[in-house]
Specification:
Elements (H helix, E strand, L loop, with lengths): L12 H13 L6 H13 L19 H6 L10 H8 L10 H21 L23 H11 L1 H8 L5 H8 L11 H11 L2 H12 L5
């Protein structure tokens, strides 16, 4: 399948904006600042809702994920995973200017909300049919966590969709995911353990590490 060639004169102002962002995303060696600024502008005024999803009078996008994954000149031609990787990058002015940091934080939160909002509810637990498999099989991915929450705990799912709680924190609250402790320096390891263990358990761990019970 080849990309459709469309002249600049055929594009609406909204399509030209998206085309510029798509071009920046595919340019190598550049600063992520321009791409992040472009994404923020698309999200802030919902430009992505104002462009057709395809040629010849196709309807406008109603799905943000579909817009992100649509090939040019209609979408960004990115996967959700690629988009999330981009959002982890830091804008060059993010640590210098509070307004830029606030704008980037708002954009990232809205993108995650739009993606989570569209994740379908997980299928009922049971024997997989020929048409589907239970989404429980990979609970470590954000999409699978949100899908399970929508099925098993809609209230908690709403908190994740609204950005009040991360998918990872929700999975821990449900017991689907165990906390990970990175062993590095004694100070950092201790700080990490304090977040997940009671004082009594910490004392028991200290005795085991010092081998006090065997002496």
């Amino acid at each position: 399948m080849t990309d459709r060639i469309v002249s600049a004169g055929d594009l609406t102002p909204e399509q030209r904006r998206i085309h510029r962002v798509e071009h920046i995303l595919r340019r190598d060696g550049g600063s992520p600042g321009s791409a992040l600024d472009g994404l923020a502008s698309i999200v802030e005024d919902e430009t992505w809702r104002k462009v057709p999803s395809g040629p010849d009078g196709a309807p406008r996008f109603t799905s943000f994920t579909a817009f992100v994954e649509a090939r040019r000149p209609y979408g960004l031609g990115y996967s959700v995973r690629q988009l999330r990787a981009l959002l982890k990058l830091c804008h060059p002015d993010e640590d210098k200017k509070a307004d830029v940091r606030d704008r980037m934080d708002a954009m990232r939160a809205e993108v995650e909300r739009l993606i989570a909002e569209e994740i379908p509810e997980a299928l009922p637990v049971g024997r997989p049919t020929e048409k589907h498999c239970d989404t429980n099989i990979k609970p470590d991915r954000v999409e699978h966590i949100v899908a399970r929450l929508k099925r098993d705990d809609p209230a908690l799912a709403e908190q994740v969709v609204n950005g009040d709680l991360t998918a990872n924190a929700a999975a821990r609250a449900k017991g689907w995911r165990r906390p990970r402790v990175v062993v590095s320096s004694p100070e950092r390891t201790a700080a990490s353990l304090r977040k997940h263990m009671t004082l009594e358990d910490l004392h028991a761990l200290a005795r085991l590490l010092l081998d006090e019970e065997d002496n």
